[in-house]
Design a protein that fits this description.
InterPro entries: Mito/Outer_Membr_Metalloprot (IPR051156), Peptidase_M48 (IPR001915)
Strand content: under 5%
GO molecular function: metal ion binding; metalloendopeptidase activity
Number of strands: 0
Largest sheet: none
Shape: elongated
Number of helices: 7
Protein name: Peptidase M48
Keywords: Hydrolase, Metal-binding, Metalloprotease, Protease, Zinc
Structural class: mainly alpha
Number of domains: 1
Cofactor: Zn(2+)
Length: 187
């Protein structure tokens, strides 16, 4: 989702997922009205943190020496990591609300879990990567999967178990025929 609330769907989202409910899971997360507000708040917080970081760096230059270098590095680290904390909290809320939207729209709640697992598989995320968690804008993928799985088990309402994916598969075939090898669309 963009700052103006626009959502852009790329063909890769449809071509790389196995069901309509998986795509709906991604969209339910992104379209959470709370996440739209979070984008605007994130921009505001980032501007404030940038100014504070700049002031801290200037103070560090004024102080000089090792203490000044520490102030500069601390200012940079704070401005780099603080927005990620808010983003992780926002993403967790968007997962929770997204699951509710998914079910309300008649999709299996498992669609959100399946979509996050698919993202993990496609991008090789999860255990074994060397990227520190504090650099992520979202909670670690394993944490998200555990949280969404926990939400699934806590849900009291019945959700549809299976959906007819005929139209989804038709759209995938049309996209493959148009943008990839047309023969792959026949598979």
């Amino acid at each position: 989702a963009a700052t103006a609330g626009n959502v852009f769907i790329q063909k890769g989202l449809i071509l790389n997922f196995d069901s309509e409910s998986e795509v709906a899971g991604v969209l339910a997360h992104v379209l959470d009205p709370g996440s739209q507000r979070h984008i605007a708040h994130h921009v505001e917080r980032t501007q404030t943190l940038y100014i504070l970081s700049l002031l801290g760096a200037l103070a560090g230059m004024f102080v000089g020496g090792e203490a000044g270098e520490g102030m500069i590095m601390g200012s940079q680290a704070a401005s780099a990591s603080e927005p990620r904390t808010y983003s992780r909290e926002d993403a967790t809320e968007a997962d929770r609300m997204g699951m509710n939207y998914l079910v309300s729209a008649g999709y299996p709640a498992k669609g959100l879990l399946d979509s996050v697992k698919k993202i993990q598989k496609l991008y090789g995320l999860g255990g074994g990567n060397n990227i520190p968690t504090y650099l992520y804008t979202h909670p670690g993928i394993d944490v998200r999967i555990g949280y969404i799985d926990h939400l699934l088990h806590r849900m009291n309402r019945q959700t549809p178990e299976k959906q007819d994916n005929t139209e989804f598969l038709r759209v995938q075939a049309l996209l493959r025929a148009e943008y990839t090898d047309p023969q792959s669309a026949l598979q």
